[in-house]
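--- STAGE predict ---
source: upstream dedup step, 1 unique chain passed
mode: sequence only
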Amino acid sequence: MAKETKEKVEKLEREYNVPLRKEFLKVPKYKRAKKAVTALKQFLSKHMKCDTIKVGPEINKAIWKRGIKYPPHHVKVKAIKTEENVVLVEVVGVEYVVKKKTEAQEKSKLEQAAEKLGMKAPKSKDAKAPEEKKVESKAEEAKEKEKPSEEVKKVEKEELKEIKKEPAKEEKVAEAKKDEEKHSPKAPHKDQDMTKHKENQ
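--- STAGE serialize ---
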């Protein structure tokens, strides 16, 4: 019989005209609307004797309507304290709408990723291990396919050896040019007479 007759806990509903100006004047202009929202929450936690407060979308829009610098000085709100000890706040005349999670939101990120990849989502921690191994094995197979064959590697090595030999040849040519310059007479400085240089030759 006790199960049939459930005790109904009455919801506590109150309307307040919340003063925001006193609080948001304590911060710089570019933080005022944020401070107004926190002031609203502090006011309601004090008066409704509850720590968890959920602000509705309409009251949020009312506070942010004129931008971050100029929130309203007072806001008339309706606060409802639920059985779960949560206060729902909304503008007077508007009901607080509780958003329900859709199926996509309820699914875990792992399940969503598995759906995108076309795989079955694991249901428990034990089921995760075989699927992870499958993914790893697929990744290893892809790497093996990408690896070049041994013949291609040999050709690449030979090309690298040739490239290394070419700079050595260029260095020898550069040294030969330097030797030639040393043995040939130097050109005179632009301030010197050309006649002295011609006599030396």
